[in-house]
């Protein structure tokens, strides 16, 4: 009989790819979906019918302890991805980030404790490290809460550790670096640039061109999650998912310009949504630990990943709310 696992945030960007990947690996997935978006189940509505047959939808709210507990009944393995993820909006509404990211994670941990869940993966982020104090950033790098978003992820990350130490809950904290690929929301850098270029915009407006990121293709990220869940050696650990390569935002934009419209040029915007001290200037992750504990390694180079992403946006990105004039930094 197929094992059923729970994915929270299953209709989000990484969550939907993870759900499909887990189905391909022979699991049934209980997909915890925000009740408010239940009738338009996001990307999960667009996937193959055969895959959908292996998915059981559960409409709830991660902030509701009873709903989370009910969703987790009978489940041995939980991938907790539900979160508010946009950094700029966290400046305006930090309390909603506390509720969803910290309280939501606490609800999952409490339910796992009550139900004796065998395996819990809590999704943290490279943002917990803030601007690199040394590179590559390993899992022992100090935390710096440079935005309310990252502060709430640090809170959730530490709560997860505390449940491992206090109650021996079999938790692993997963810290993916910047994931990109098909279906990513337009508020992130790569979809923003691609959608502008595809719409024929010739002046690509960006914030600061210098910050660097370690960009992980979404298929590598979801393989990383699964590899971590499969290995007993990862219990109680914090684990980066990173390529150990970095690229500046200026270089990234140039690469996309070359792929889509070499006539276009970058215009640096003075107006910023991220205060200077809040901007994370350098993220380059170490991936030794995940390699050592699970054998995972990245399979997608940036060139191939960007080509695939651009291809998806050309084909399917249209009509899905992407706007050429969107600009967020
Ligand atoms: C959207 C946009 C971004 N930027 C700059 C701001 C950053 O220096 C960089 C990357 O921004 P992006 O929003 O794509 O990603 P991060 O701010 O690194 O955060 C993302 O990756 C981490 C891991 C998470 O944990 C966050 O949830 C996720 O949102 O490009 C611009 O200059 N212009 C733009 O239009």
TrEMBL record:
Q: Does the keyword Lyase apply?
A: yes
- Which terms in the Gene Ontology molecular function aspect does this entry carry? carboxy-lyase activity; dTDP-glucose 4,6-dehydratase activity
EC number(s) on file = 4.2.1.46
The signal peptide, as residue positions, is none
The EC category is: lyase
Keyword annotations:
Lyase
Q: Does the keyword Cytoplasm apply?
A: no
Q: In what residue span(s) does the NAD(P)-binding domain sit?
A: 6-309
Per the record, a Pfam family?
GDP_Man_Dehyd
User: Entry's Gene3D superfamilies?
Assistant: NAD(P)-binding Rossmann-like Domain, UDP-galactose 4-epimerase, domain 1
Protein name (record): dTDP-glucose 4,6-dehydratase
Which species does the entry assign this protein to?
Cesiribacter andamanensis AMV16
Q: Which gene encodes it?
A: strE_2
């Amino acid at each position: 009989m197929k094992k059923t696992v729970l994915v929270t945030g299953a209709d989000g960007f990484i969550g939907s790819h993870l759900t499909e990947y887990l189905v391909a690996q022979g699991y049934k997935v209980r997909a915890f979906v925000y009740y408010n978006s239940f009738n338009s189940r996001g990307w999960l509505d667009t996937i193959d019918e055969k895959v959908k047959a292996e998915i059981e939808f559960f409409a709830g709210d991660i902030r509701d302890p009873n709903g989370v507990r009910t969703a987790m009944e009978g489940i041995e393995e939980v991938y907790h991805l539900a979160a508010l993820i946009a950094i700029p909006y966290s400046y305006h509404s930090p309390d909603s980030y506390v509720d969803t990211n910290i309280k939501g994670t606490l609800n999952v941990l409490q339910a796992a404790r009550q139900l004796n869940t065998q395996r819990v993966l809590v999704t943290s982020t490279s943002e917990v490290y803030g601007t690199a104090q040394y590179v590559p950033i390993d899992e022992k790098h100090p935390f710096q809460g440079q935005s309310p978003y990252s502060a709430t992820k640090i809170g959730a990350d530490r709560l997860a550790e505390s449940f491992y130490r206090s109650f021996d809950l079999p938790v692993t904290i997963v810290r993916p670096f910047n994931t990109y690929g098909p279906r990513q929301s337009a508020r992130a850098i790569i979809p923003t640039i691609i959608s502008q270029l595809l719409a024929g915009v010739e002046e690509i407006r960006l914030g600061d061109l210098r910050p660097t990121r370690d960009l992980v293709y979404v298929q590598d990220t979801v393989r990383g999650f699964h590899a971590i869940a499969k290995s007993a050696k990862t219990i109680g650990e914090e684990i980066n998912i990173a390529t150990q390569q970095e690229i500046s935002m200026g270089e990234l934009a140039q690469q996309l310009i070359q792929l889509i419209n070499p006539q276009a040029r970058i215009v640096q915007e003075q107006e910023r949504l991220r205060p200077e001290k809040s901007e994370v200037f350098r993220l380059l992750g170490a991936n030794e630990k995940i390699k050592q504990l699970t054998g995972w390694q990245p399979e997608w180079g940036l060139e191939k990943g960007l080509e695939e992403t651009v291809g998806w946006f050309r084909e399917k990105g249209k009509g899905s709310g992407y706007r050429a004039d969107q600009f967020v930094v």
